[in-house]
Amino acid sequence: MSGYSEPRPVNTDYAVSLLEQLRVFFEQRLLTDVVLVVEDAEIPCHRMVLATCSSYFRAMFTSGLSESRQGRVHLHSVNSAALRIIVTYAYTGNLAISDGTVEPLYETACFLQVEDVLLQCREYLVKKINVDNCVRMLSIGDMFSCAELKQSAKRMVEHKFPAVYKQEAFLQLSHELLLDVLSSDNLNVEKEETVREAAMLWLEHDMESRSQHLSSVLSQIRIDTLSEVTQRAWFQGLPPNDKSVAVQGLYKSMPKFFKPRLGMTKEEMLIFVEAASESPADGPGSGSLHSAVCYSPQAEKVYKLCNLPGDLQKVGTLVTPDNDIFIAGGQIPLKAAVANHGKAGKTQAVYRSVDSFFWFDAQQNVWVAKTPMLCARVRPSLVHCRGFIYAVGGDSVGGELNRRTVERYDWEKDQWSTVSPLPCSWSWSTCVSARGCIYALAHDLTFCYSPEADTWVEVASRKTSRCFSSAAALGDLIFYVGGLHVASTSGLRLPTSTVDGSSVAVEVYDVVKNQWRRAANIPAKRYSDPCVRAVVLLGSLCIFMRETHMNERPRYAIHQYDVAADRWYPRQAISERVLWDLGKDFRCAVGKLYPSCLEVSPWKPPAYLFAPDGVEEFEVDGEMVSLPHV
C-alpha cells in the first residue's frame, strides 16, 4: 500500500475554535508568558501569538539575546490604545478602525511591523482622503514611506489646491513635500497667481527659518504664466537682503517656456452618462451598451470617460460647484432570463437595484468607490446644497415609503445619514438647488426643503401637470423644461408637452417671489420624440436638444435663453460627425474636465450616410449631397 495520502481540506471550524480558545486564554490571563508595558498600562500576552502577527515581536522572541527571555517588554513612544487594538486583533482577527484611531493605529502597526493591520489602515486612509485631511495624509504617507497613501493624497491636494493651500497643515509641510507639490504639472489652478500666493504664505509662516529656502521655493513659480502686472510686482514683500539675490538668480535660471498647469487646460463640457452605443460585436436585437462621454462645445470634440463600474445603468448624476462628479444608485444586470413565446424564446435581462456611490477622479479618468448609500435607488435625484450631497427618492426602490426617503452625504466623514422624507411618493421627480434650499418638482407640485429646519414645505403650484421634465437653476430662477403632460385625475400621460406641435414648453419659478410663470417656448424644427436637458453652460441657461422625426437619425443642438428678452436662440448646432446617437435615456450635466486626461472619441460614419444602391442623392447634416460622376 502506498504511503501517499490525499490532502484533506482545512477544517475551518477547528481554526475558528482554536482562535476562540486563544481569546479566552487571553481574557482570563491563562498561560500568559510575557507582559507588554506601555505608558501606564500592562497587557499580559502569549509570545507565540505576538510573534505570529508581528515581525517585530518575532525577531525579539527568536533572537536568542537576553531580550528574548524577558518577562516584561517595555514599549516606548507607542500609543497604548492602538497597542490594545492590535493585540485584540492578534487574538480575534477583528480590527476596530475609526477616524479617531486610524492614524495612531497606523503608526503603531508600522513600529511593530504588523502587515495585516498596516494594509487595512492604508486602505481605510486612502478611502477617507478628502479636501480637509489630504495634506495631513500626504505628510503621513511620506513619514511612513507609504507610496499608495502618499500618491492618493497628493492627487487630492493637486485637485483641491485652491482650497487646501491656506490650511494650517499646508503651512506645516516640509520643504521637500512643498517643492514636490509646487512643481507639479497637475495642479488644478486656473491662474499661476494661486501658486505664487501659496509659496509666499508658506515662506511667511516662518520667514526666519525658511528664508534659506527662498530661491528653491520661488523657482517653482512659472513666471511666464503670470500676468504682466503680477510679474512686475511679484517680488514685493520679500526680505530686502534676499530680494536682489532672488531676482538675479531666478530670472537667469528660468526657462523661456513653461508648461501650463493642468487646471489651466480645463474646458467646460457637457457630460453624458448612459449614452447608448451599439456594440458591433453584438448581433441584431442584442440591445445597446451604455457609455459615458463628454462633449466640448469650444473644441467641438467628443471625449471618452471611463465606463460606469459594473455595467451600472439608470444612475443619478451630479456635478458639484467644486467640479466634483458623482454617480449614485442605479441597477446592474444579473443574468438573462429566457421567456418562451411559442417556439422561439425571447431573452430578457434581469437587473438588481444597488446603493453604489462613486466619485470621478478626473486626473486618472477612473471612478472611485465611496461609502454606499443607505438605500438602493434607481435614478435618484442628486443635489448639492450647503456643502452636502442629497440623494432624493428614486424609481423602483421598494414601496411608497422607500420612494419618499432622502439621505445626505458628508464627504469629510464619507458617511450617509437620513433626513426628512419627501411629502409624496413620486417616481418622476426632478430636484434642483437654489438659494441654499432644495426644490423637488413633479406633476404640478413643488416642495422646498430647508436643511436648517430639516423640513419640506409646499410652495406655489405650476400651471400644468408634467413629469419626466428637466430642470436647472440659474440665480433665483428655476427652469422646468419639456416632459410629458399628466392628467391630474387619471394620471394619463399624453404624447408631449408641446403647445402647437413645433415647440417645447418652459415654465420658470422665481424663488424670491414664490411664483411660477410661462416662459418662451423652445422652437423645434421637427420632432416626434422630444428629448431636452436643461443645463447651465458657461454661465448661461442652455438646453441640449435631441430632435428626431419618424425613423430618421437624431439631430442635436444647443439653445441659449435670454432672460431679459424672454427669448431662445440657437447657440450651437452639433454635427453628427461629432456626436453620434446618444439614445433617449442619457443623463446630462456640465463640468470642467481636462482634455489631456481623456481619450478622444473618433467619429465613425454610420451605415446610413452611404447612399443605397441606385440612389444618386442622399442627405448629410441636413443637406442633399449628390454622388460624384465616375
From TrEMBL:
The keyword Repeat applies. The keyword Repeat applies. Residues 32-99 form the BTB domain. Coiled coil: none annotated. Pfam families: BACK, BTB, Kelch_1. Keywords: Kelch repeat, Repeat. InterPro entries: BACK, BTB-kelch_protein, BTB/POZ_dom, KBTBD2_BACK, Kelch-typ_b-propeller, Kelch_1, SKP1/BTB/POZ_sf. This is Kelch repeat and BTB (POZ) domain containing 2. It comes from Paramormyrops kingsleyae.
